[in-house]
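Dear Dr. V.,

Thank you for agreeing to look over these. As mentioned in my earlier message, I'm a first-year student in the group and I'm still getting used to reading structure tokens, so any feedback on how I've presented them would be very welcome. I ran two proteins. I've put each sequence directly above its structure. The first is here:
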Amino acid sequence: MSRPGAVTFKGNPITLAGNAIQAGQAAPDFKLHFFEGGMKAITLADVKGKPTILSVVPSLDTPVCQVQTKKFNEAIGKLGDKINALPVSLDLPFAMNRFCGAEGITNIRSASDYQDRNFGNNWGTLIEELKILTRATFVLDADGTVCYAEYVPEVTQEPNYAAAMEALQGQLQTA
């Protein structure tokens, strides 16, 4: 896993707020927002009970973030309702909802950290210089313990989909 401070954006070093999240630690709490017939919140407590994948992206309005969201949506679709899946960004919930609707993203619930950046700060994903989230992937077990964490070393590159999905599948086998 890359540590905050060891991440670059277009080759330039960036600073990530907070501490790196590592496999084996309890997931930090969060309060994210989504739009579904109105503004709603989702917290760590809401995802406990099922394995969860958090796909963190800078913005769904960028090509790599779109690819990442589509690839995870497709891979996760085969798992049905056995897991929780959240793409997390600082995009407004309305924009995330529009993107997911337009692109047929139906297997994951978009989650925005736009209100207070508590996710970005608590999960070590907020890029201090740009005030957006870095690219990262986390898998949690049903109890909310982190079992996989990846901070993508170069923000413009895609995450390791196979490793994240393997970690998620591993949680389904132990559940």
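The second protein is here, in the same arrangement:
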Amino acid sequence: MQVNLRSFKQKVRHNAKQFRSFLTKIEKKNPKNLDQIAAQLSPEVWAEVDCLSCANCCKSMSPTFTPKDIKRIAAHLEMKPAEFKSTWLEYDKKDKDWLNVARPCQFLDLKSNMCSIYEVRPADCAGFPHLTKKKFVEYIHVHKQNLEYCPATYKLVEKMKLAMQ
């Protein structure tokens, strides 16, 4: 289903605080069936969210690039890893991560919302938004952040909140 980013951002403004509070609560209590609930709700979420109609993650966030990612993408672009880093990335000294130098992502086609390096994209992109990672509770801090950027994360938390009432 198409994502209306304007509507999504309004929902986030209205509900983000309440959703973060819910996530904090389940982080502290850690229900035994949390992973199963996430896995059960995930297909429903993806039936309702079309990433290609959104691409908000690529427009407003940066993945972290691992050394493996850098090597793989540089080879794909027929560059040396050092050249790839100096051209496209910046080093975050605080978190010790390689990140995109610009937003939106330089590899995002803004007309189609498609990634020009999709087949070799960073592992962080391939796993995003990490909805069904085992040990869901260990990713709650990530979901709290992603709520603002990702309609799929928002939907999952919304559905979890209803399922766990």
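From my reading of the second output: The chain has a mean pLDDT of 94. Residues 5-58+128-163 form one domain. Does that match how you would interpret it?

Kind regards,
E.
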